[in-house]
Amino acid sequence: MQIQPASSLRGTVLLPGDKSISHRYAVLAAMAEGSTTIRNFSNSQDCQSTLDCLQQIGVDIHRREREVEIQSQGWTEFQQPTRTLDAGNSGTTIRFLSALLCGSSFASTIQGDSSLNRRPMQRIIIPLTRMGASISAHKDEYPPLHISGASLQGIHYRLPLASAQVKSCLLLAGLMARGQTVVEETTPTRNHTELALPFFNASPKHENGGIAIEGPVSLKPVQMEIPGDFSAAAFFILAALLLPDSEIHLAGVGVNPSRTALLALLEQAGVRLEQTNTRLSNGEPVCDLTVRHSRQLLDRFPAQIQGEWIPNLIDEIPVLAVLGTRLKRGLAIRQAEELRKKESDRIHSTVLNLRNIGIRVEEFPDGFAIPPGQQIGGGRVQSLGDHRIAMAFSVAGLIGLGPVEIDDPACVSVSFPGFFEVLQSLVVKS
Prior knowledge:
30% of the residues lie in helices and 27% in strands. By secondary structure, the chain is of the alpha/beta class. Helix 1 runs parallel beside helix 2, helix 1 runs parallel beside helix 3 and helix 4 runs parallel beside helix 5. The two termini are 18 Å apart.
């Protein structure tokens, strides 16, 4: 896939349903007794992996375009799968399903593709084992995970590293456990699970220094609608801000503050996106966004991002690196070692591909630094099977001097099938 330089972007973007929220609603619906309908469900491969795994443990699922109906007899009635569960490329799937399997009455195995099977799972194995589950893993750390379900007991657990997936995994297990489960965060992460739980008849509380859930809980089915995915919106937002004469509209975007650190950074730089039709959807803030080219962005955007910004900006860092090539002061990302444990080592993938398109960059164990005064020249991008790398460097192709070639465009289907078609529909060619 070759992305040519563009003069501007104009048009309307229909975003896929938020991937993170789709995973959570699907799993909670499977744990509830009855029929749940979820509208604007993500069409990503990752979320399909979650649905496929839920079907394998006895949940009845019907999908109609962007709507999913999930019929379940509740988490106490999950059935032993007849084969190894396949989480595909989805770290969220393997972490969330592991919680459900740990609280069930049978033994099972879950794994992913070759990429996922290289991602360490100790961060869920340790606390789930403390809750009473029995989990064995390849080299004690990597999938496949062999899980013997058990009667779980609530624990108080302080997350050693910020992770919304690990937090949610433990809260899901806490719904099935006896007594109180408390998950303590050192740095706040995305809170989609906590917002969704009350709609399913659970009552998380902020106490004892963390988020507490009293189990076991009998969950109830609901009717829900998922906002547009902000992480998907970020690519279009930054491209439109960078290209002169651009104006794009994004309808129904989720703007949960635990996900929109990018908007806060843009505001610091004096950039304000027009927000209209603001509303709540099942506790999730939603609005329509209008994005126009900003001349001051390059002068005022922060030259370094680290610390508490990182957990709520983690998905956007590759495309922020592309932005960094144009910033007057350059850009340094630090304290982001979590990026090395994503679909690819995203620190290395980002640095490698910046160099592939003619950008000088220094790599650190926890991030990278891009000196100012550079220009993307074009080149071939190695996506390494990582959807966010492919999409981020598509933006590089739009703003560079020459075309950028993406070696594996199909990998974007993990989160956004049709991404390239939507992007090209907005392009006003130079």
